[in-house]
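Quick one: structure tokens for this chain, please?
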Amino acid sequence: MGGFLWSGDRREERRLLRDGLGDCEAFLHGRLAERLEARGVWVPAWAWTNMLAHGEEQDLRDDRAPRRAGLGEINDRWRRARAYLASEVLLLAEGHGPLVVLQERILRPLELDLAVAPCSAMRDPSEWAVHVSSVLDEHRTCERRTSRHGTHHH
């Protein structure tokens, strides 16, 4: 009987390791919100930020496309907010890119800030969208100031 329990524990360890590795892979590819959603757990704001911070340009372009509803009203609101923000990020990358630099300098630090914020923070998709937009606007303003002072007009 001891061997049976031990092998069961090993199977559980392997399952947990597989899940953990899957979570890490999803995080690095910007797909953590979808992975959590598939598990049926609440998806925090920082996880919705994950695609913006780690997704490829094509992921962000695809995310802007309207989806059919049906995953629950709250997640639909988060998806719409993220689709709007994906458009904002792509526009900013066009003018002040490249995308990977924006992700490294702005979106990943923002994702981390949201991850360590109190659980009560950013529970509403519109509050999150306004917050992320303001961070993007702040960067856009700083870039304009820098380029205005650093370039010569002919």
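Confidence is low (pLDDT under 50) at residues 1-6.
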